[in-house]
Write a structure and sequence with these properties.
By secondary structure, this protein is mostly helical. The protein has one domain. The chain is about 75% helix and about 0% strand. The chain is built from eleven helices and no strands. α1 crosses α5, α2 packs across α3 and α5 packs antiparallel against α6. Keywords: Capsule biogenesis/degradation, Cell membrane, Membrane, Polysaccharide transport, Sugar transport, Transmembrane, Transmembrane helix, Transport.
Length: about 250
């Protein structure tokens, strides 16, 4: 399995980022530009961000975790379609394809988050230290959540191709309601009652707790996010295990 997963990861690295340094630079440059754009736009309209006084740090701690979830879930959902030619070999299973995509994308985004946020701390000479415990917890929960959504969608998209478009449409508001631009604590009670059920709100709140010592994020429930993630992973794997042979024939 280790050899197979490693080979699939190397193939995806060559396919996604190319064999030149430029592909890896773009992987870092893209989120940097996204954070910079948000910072410039909101700094023109607001005197200060929701936490602290540094716009890039506030939006980086919201945008980068969301980007990690979105990319991980999307890449995992396309795992069978991407690795279909190799799944014809008995030694390669759909589990290998899923693991390869999850591991590679988690490592990539964790590295990008570390580089971008470290760059913000250095560029703006922000005070430390950072509490790494909640940051690592947030990354782990994001990885599990992205894997869960992606695994279930891997079955649904492969079985019903129209689901890919439907999912894209119904999840577009996630960018606006996941706490990237605002703090859950400052929202009206009725809005909080609905937003609490968005697992990304909890992950982003936990991430920001690590960078802002005075931010408690008391609403965060690791148990809720973990329950949602594990449920989706189990459901997705069970469906793929039962139907993956038929899906490969499509």
């Amino acid at each position: 399995m280790v050899r197979t997963v490693t080979a699939l990861m190397l193939r995806e690295i060559a396919t996604t980022y190319g064999r030149s340094v430029g592909g890896y630079i773009w992987a870092i440059l893209e989120p940097v530009l996204g954070v910079a754009l948000l910072s410039v736009l909101f700094s023109l309209a607001l005197r200060s961000p929701g936490l602290g006084s540094n716009f890039p740090l506030f939006y980086a701690t919201g945008f980068l975790p969301f980007a990690m979830f979105h990319d991980l879930s999307s890449k995992t959902a396309a795992a069978i379609r991407f690795s279909r030619p190799f799944l014809a070999y008995p030694s390669v299973t759909f589990i290998d394809a899923l693991i390869a995509r999850v591991v590679l994308n988690v490592l990539t985004h964790a590295t990008v988050i570390a580089i971008v946020i470290s760059g913000i701390y250095v560029a703006f000479q922000l005070p430390g230290p950072v509490d790494l415990a909640p940051v690592l917890e947030a990354l782990l929960l994001l990885a599990l959540l992205g894997m869960g959504v992606g695994t279930l969608n891997c079955f649904l998209i492969t079985s019903f191709p129209i689901w890919e478009r439907i999912w894209s449409i119904i999840t577009r508001p996630l960018f606006l309601v996941s706490g990237i631009f605002f703090l859950y604590d400052l929202m009206p009670a009725k809005a909080q009652a609905l937003l609490w059920y968005n697992p990304l709100i909890h992950c982003i709140g936990l991430m920001r707790r690590g960078f802002y010592p005075t931010y408690e994020a008391a609403y965060v429930s690791r148990t809720y996010v973990l329950t949602v993630a594990i449920t989706l992973i189990v459901a997705g794997l069970a469906l793929l295990e039962k139907k993956h042979k038929k899906l490969l024939e499509r």
